[in-house]
Amino acid sequence: MKKALYGLPEEVRFCTRCVISNQRPGSVVEFKNTGKEPKPTIKFDDEGVCSACRFAEIKENKIDWDLRKKELLELCDWHRSKDGSYDCVVPGSGGKDSVFTAHVLREQYGMNPLTVTWAPHIYTEVGWRNMQNWMRCGFDNMLFTPDAKVHRLLTRLAFENLCHPFQPFIIGQRLIGPRIAALYGIPLIFYGENQAEYGNDIEANDKPTMDPQFFMEEPDLDSLVLGGVLARELVDRYGISINDLNPYLPVQPDRLKKINAEMHYLSYYIKWDPQENYYYASEHCDFEANTMRTEGSYSKYSSIDDRIDPLHYFTTLAKFGIGRATYDAAQEIRNGKITREEGVSLVHRYDTEFPSKDFREITEYMGITEDRFWEVIDAARSPHLWEKVDGDWKLRHQVQNLSI
């Protein structure tokens, strides 16, 4: 067997229901983990079915969604403001899911959400239009744009050290909701779906709330890691001040405990279906799909607000052999939008496509050359997933139709 990097299983298996493989990395607490060994958490049972597909069965057959909606109503009744003040925080980009979440809470449950956004690295045209359409739909929004110099540096370091240019954004996006909630004394924060929807431990979906460890921790520059670099080194070597790092640091526990903050997943209460969320956002808030499919996939409506998105998925292809078409197809197979055979065909056609459209702009943003980009990408390829054939990198394993 070829050596597997990142703690991945050396034997590559594909789900017999969808197209995901056992190489899918699990979600980690980004500011606690260097990203060098993101252990896989997706599980396969004796029938070769992944945990995400098994949870899709549970959603369809075993959850009483009417009862869950009653629980949501009770939660909202407890927190709903009577004086017009904000009663919940909804973090989001203005994408289909955050638009859906905010609109449902306001129109169906009578809440008055404050929406908060961590700005993308570089807005796409359609992403900015959707952000504006979200606000025109009647929502107040706080758009937080981090120090460009610091964010560009952290993005470059995350790419070079972890082959994960999205890490600083993920950290900021995750922390901005609780940070604003603590600032304004709003104890209820709503996120969209739990990542357990996509393959993390199924049992995590039994809880409506997010583990507070994702947010609450005393900042410690000698153990905190950003972009694969200790925070202390960012201060001492790169000249970043502690104030510069503040947006990326965990929220101090006493600030969230003081307001009895709760972070809830809307997907616990309402059956989550990203494509249906798109239709809802389009109907109610003029959400626009892109005019062309996303590079590396066949979709036009998911994660279209940041120019760096396609490059991020190209890095997951390099590290885990899983590109954007695999993620999209697996999700839509589980939700009954396409068949597995269609998904396999789409993965073969688009998964390894290189995102060339915004490549120059993104490498300039990170301050790296094209040669340096490929040096990082090729070093990140795990030998058990990739081989060179006639000078070109090829995947050793791709999902197949079961009839083949």
From TrEMBL:
It comes from Pseudodesulfovibrio nedwellii. InterPro entries: N-acetyl_sugar_amidoTrfase. NCBIfam families: WbuX (TIGR03573). This is LPS biosynthesis protein PseA.
